[in-house]
Design a protein that fits this description.
With 552 residues, this protein is an alpha+beta fold. It folds into two domains: 291 residues, Periplasmic binding protein-like II (D-Maltodextrin-Binding Protein, domain 2); 211 residues, Dipeptide-binding Protein, domain 3. The chain contains 16 helices and 22 strands. Helix 12 links the parallel strand 16 and strand 17.
């Protein structure tokens, strides 16, 4: 998931004195209070940006939003299988342009307002009619990813066309989406918290103003800051930015009251500090257990794996003359000792990647066996290439740890040594992840060789290979009509079996072209206290805290 700029201070929603006092009193992990209250404390790496789901695309915001709001469709816990949520079932027209959702009945938002088809359409129409700064790619990233553009194009960078046409409240409990163009990734995309259905009254009362100043985004409206109302299992209570964010159980939740009475999110930026907080009993869970900390966490609790749904890769920018030579790209692919890197620098369970899709994603091509580590073959290919100047800048980020790249410098050093062994001259280029690295690689196309990766947002191959190669992007500068044609055809195709074949074929073409070398599908680790049960890691980091229990 993408991570973007900073926001202003969030003001707490007015709540009962008892809840606020209880939240303030809790300074450690599981607080038993009167012996019956169950509080779950999660050590987050940062505060959410805002709780207006349509404005964010980062994991820390989504983790909280996912507990407060619900979407039309959701994921079966621990999987990428799309299942009913606020929609009990749905039908898709043969041409893929009409989606009819039958909705749950007798459900209310946290502010007491009824959930119905009008509320659903209000939210979709709000997103479609975003204007001005709302059309910034950092603000409405997922709307643009799934639906494209808006009712009007106020930003040159916004897509010119939209797949969205309209939403119709056919009945109180039936909402119908009409599209201008088919998209087979739609249902998978609608599981994203960015498409959470919020109370129209809360949106209107709070307001949704925002301002962008350089890389900083200020959410000046009250919705998502002072006013928060979804239909989910937990309600917003209070937020002291930099200290804690408190949720309380929704007593009238349609699936029954959760086992937890409260959830507290505590921002702790440093992974080692989060581990120490777990050791001290100050938190009950955190994400990002380092390989070196696994045993320390096991001594006081549990280590659980999140299923591998990511890819780390060495990218190759096709605008660099040397990298336009296919034999050079092939030589690089055979020069990299990926297994040695994983054995030395990754936790147990990390897999060598052979393509840009993880094996758990349908569309994966099982016939692709990967690039064999063969330095002698790499030397031969370099000789056959006819190239004499083998100098390359190799970019890697500083001040960051990503699920697919826990230690970027270790990855760089290992691969740089591999490449130098077969005759390349490697020039290191490292810049801070925020704000320079992504801007330099993804927007400005400055990288030559570079380290990057992707954690899947939703279970569709377009979210991986489509994101990278369906259009020409600055990071790869790949223009190949056959690859791009297959990926665009795959997105529009409505038959699942036909899509499977299209993506298998596209993955083979990408493998043969070598726009980069995928090297890892990693399994991120979470640390849990010994008394935590029911925590089911999600491949896309959307965990249901309504399933969590505190024992004892």
């Amino acid at each position: 998931m993408r991570v973007y700029g900073k926001v202003g201070r969030i003001v707490a929603l007015t709540a009962s004195v008892g809840l606020l006092a209880a939240a303030t009193a809790c300074s450690g992990a599981t607080s038993t209070g009167d012996g019956e209250s169950k509080t779950f404390v999660f050590g987050a790496s940062d505060d959410p940006k805002t709780l207006d789901a349509a404005y964010v695309s980062d994991g820390e915001s989504f983790r909280v939003i996912f507990q407060i709001y619900e979407t039309l469709v959701a994921l079966k816990p621990g999987t990428t299988e799309v299942v009913p949520s606020l929609a009990t079932d749905w039908k898709v027209s043969d041409d893929g342009l009409t989606y009819t959702f039958n909705l749950v009945k007798d459900v209310k938002f946290h502010d007491g307002e009824p959930f119905d088809a009008k509320a659903v359409c209000y939210n979709f129409d709000r997103w479609y009619h975003f204007k001005g700064a709302q059309q910034n790619g950092d603000i409405s990233y997922y709307w643009q990813t799934i639906f494209g553009g808006f009712a009007t194009q106020d930003s040159e960078s916004a897509p010119k066309t939209s797949r969205y046409d309209s939403c119709e409240a056919t009945e109180d409990s039936v909402a119908t989406l009409h599209l201008k163009q088919p998209s087979s990734a739609l249902l998978s995309g609608l599981v994203l918290p960015a498409f959470a259905i919020a109370s129209p009254k809360a949106i209107e009362e709070g307001g949704t103003d925002l301002a962008i100043n350089g890389d900083s985004i200020a959410y000046t409206g009250g919705f998502g800051t002072k006013v928060v109302a979804g239909t989910g299992p937990f309600k917003f209570v209070s937020w002291d930015r930099g200290e804690k964010l408190v949720l309380a159980a929704n007593e009238t939740y349609r699936e029954g009251k959760p086992a937890l009475d409260r959830i507290i999110f505590r921002p702790i930026a440093d992974a080692t500090a989060r581990m120490q907080a777990l050791q001290a009993g100050e938190i009950d869970a955190y994400e990002g257990v380092a390989a070196a900390d696994i045993q320390a966490v096991k001594n006081v609790g549990q280590v659980v794996e999140r299923p591998a749904f990511n890819v780390g890769y060495v990218g190759m920018n096709q605008k660099v003359p040397l990298l336009k030579n296919h034999k050079i790209r092939e030589a690089i692919a055979h020069a990299l000792n990926r297994q040695a890197l994983l054995s030395a620098a990754y936790p147990e369970g990390a897999e060598v990647a052979n393509q840009f899709l993880p094996p758990s994603q349908w569309g994966y091509n099982n016939s692709i066996k990967g690039y064999e580590y063969d330095p002698e073959k790499a030397k031969q290919l370099v000789a056959e290439s006819g190239e004499k100047d083998l100098k390359l800048e190799f970019w890697y980020p500083a001040n960051v740890s990503r699920p697919y790249m826990p230690n970027p410098q270790a990855v760089y050093e290992s691969f740089a040594a591999d490449l130098e062994k077969v005759g390349f001259t490697i020039v290191p280029k490292t810049v801070p992840w925020t704000p320079d690295y992504l801007q330099s690689i993804q927007a400005d196309g400055k990288g030559q060789l570079f380290l990057l990766g992707w954690s899947g947002d939703y279970a569709d191959p377009d979210n991986f290979v489509g994101t990278f190669f369906r259009e020409t992007t600055p990071q790869f500068n790949l223009t190949d009509p056959e690859i791009q044609g297959l990926l665009n055809k795959g997105l529009a195709e409505t038959d699942q079996a036909a899509r499977q074949k299209l993506y298998e074929e596209a993955n083979q073409l990408i493998f043969d072209y070598i726009p980069g070398v995928p090297f890892v599908h990693n399994r991120p680790l979470l640390g849990l206290g010994k008394n935590v049960s029911g925590y089911q890691p999600s491949p896309v980091s959307l965990e249901y805290f309504k399933l969590v229990k505190i024992e004892g």
